[in-house]
Amino acid sequence: MRNFIIVLFNVLLISVLQTVFAQQLPRKGWFGARLETVNAENYKTLSLKEPKGIKIVQVVGGTSKALKLLPDDVLISVDKNYYKETADLGKYINSKVEGNSITLLISRKGKEIKIEGKIVGRDRETDKNATIVYESVPYKEGLLSVIINKPKKEGKLPAVLFIPGYTCSSVDNLSENHPYGRIIRAFSDAGYVVLRVEKSGLGDSQNTPECTSTNLNDEIESFTAGLNKLKSLPYVDDENIFLFGHSMGGIIAPALSAKNAVKGVMVYGTTAKSFFEYQLEMNRLQLMLAKPDPMEFEKTCRLQTQIAYEYYIEKKDLKTIASTPERMDALKKDWQYDGQNKIFDRNQEYWRQIIDHPLLEYWRDTTAKVLVLYGGADYQAFSKPDHEQIVYTVNHYHPKHAELLIFPETDHYLAKTNTRENAFNLFNAGKIQELFNAFDFKVTQKSVEWANNQLLINH
């Protein structure tokens, strides 16, 4: 009887925990305004006695709209905290959740006004063809936010885990023309449940480390948690689950598929070689697209080789590598070095761990069917031989399991830009929306067709 009670207690405990972890997390705070630091040039025009505070340039929504802030209002303090940088204010608001109280002291046309109200979060996504479900999954000491597109169909459905690129950007509330949103909707509209899991610290995730502080192993752990969540959903056919990885997602996807049974793996714009080799080749290509002086080009490439060798192979600390003004300048210019321990907005261990991950062994151990997608105008995941090597490796160990689809005029963001040069110029000119609007729908069309064919194989 005692054992029965213990078993019953454990069953109930598991049930309670599953209910808690399936709960919708509260929205994190969203200030909802374009901001600008008050400085020595503009403070007098704002009727201020001294250059301090943060100026409201435009009210977009969220907390700013709820508190009826106006353009040219100046934030003197927020909950008695004083901010000089807009990023610091954003972090503070993001540390709160919808419904939390907030008190602002603002200057409006030279008059100080106290405003009290509630924090407001972003609107949650909607989809006319699907139900958007917000849930969560345990991760380290906290919870990661999960967003699910659930088609309005009955029964158990095939599903896709979407794995984005390396950036610490939320995958929630994607704009209508965002390429990730288009990929997700393409599969959802075709009857697939599509699950996104936020990276650590992003979206509505709670008590998880800041994304930029985590490494690649942490990220693989978070997407494994997302995959397990997808398999557990009562409306998902767990024998028909696919992975779709974009860019760095194309490195994470095989790390998951090598250890977890899935139906298929789709990757777009990725690599198969050592990241040491990849980055050197990428630097050469991108520097050449900028049309530099030939001798300066070669000098820069040689310096990049020295830095990359010390970083990837000798595993030296970034501060040690940046030992001269020339090296510091090269790291800041071409590696987006923050002067501390981050490059490309991730910590130094994140990138180094890619070297230690046996990418081709992951592909060898993947028993799922594989679709490799390559864009001929991609100047980031530029190597057609790398994509061919993935296909060759999978088929060597699992004949006829992998195939390659090439989109000759499509870039890294799935935009049909015709050439690498055009894609490079548009991106560096900041014409992101133009790239988004040039989305190549053939990529998603062919991907969905391929996944549908895999579903038919065993029926």
What does this entry look like structurally?
This protein is an alpha/beta fold. It folds into three domains: 33-118, PDZ domain (Pdz3 Domain, Roll); 130-268 and 358-457, Alpha/Beta hydrolase fold, catalytic domain (Rossmann fold, 3-Layer(aba) Sandwich), CATH 3.40.50; 275-355, no CATH class. The protein has helices at residues 2-21, 62-66, 86-94, 179-189, 216-232, 249-257, 275-289, 294-313, 318-321, 325-334, 348-356, 359-364, 384-397, 420-428, 432-437, 441-457, and strands at residues 33-37, 54-59, 74-78, 101-108, 111-118, 130-139, 142-151, 157-163, 193-197, 236-246, 264-268, 342-343, 346-347, 369-375, 402-407. Strands 6-7-9-8-10-11-14-15 form an eight-stranded mixed β-sheet, sandwiched between helices. Helix 13 links the parallel strand 14 (369-375) and strand 15. Helix 7 runs antiparallel to helix 8. It is globular, with a radius of gyration of 24 Å. The two termini are 47 Å apart. 39% of the residues are buried. Residues 1-21 have low confidence and may be disordered.
Contiguous helical run count = 16
Structurally, the number of domains stands at 3
Structural class: alpha/beta
Relative strand content: 15-25%
CATH homologous superfamily of the largest domain - what is it? Alpha/Beta hydrolase fold, catalytic domain
Task: Profile the largest sheet.
Answer: 8 strands, mixed
In total, how many beta strands? Answer: 15
CATH topology of the largest domain: Rossmann fold
Give the strand order, joined by hyphens, for the main sheet. Answer: 6-7-9-8-10-11-14-15
Radius of gyration: 24 Å
**What share of the residues lie within helices?**
25-40%
CATH architecture classification of the largest domain: 3-Layer(aba) Sandwich
Mean pLDDT: 91
Distance between the termini: 47 Å
- Characterize the overall form: globular
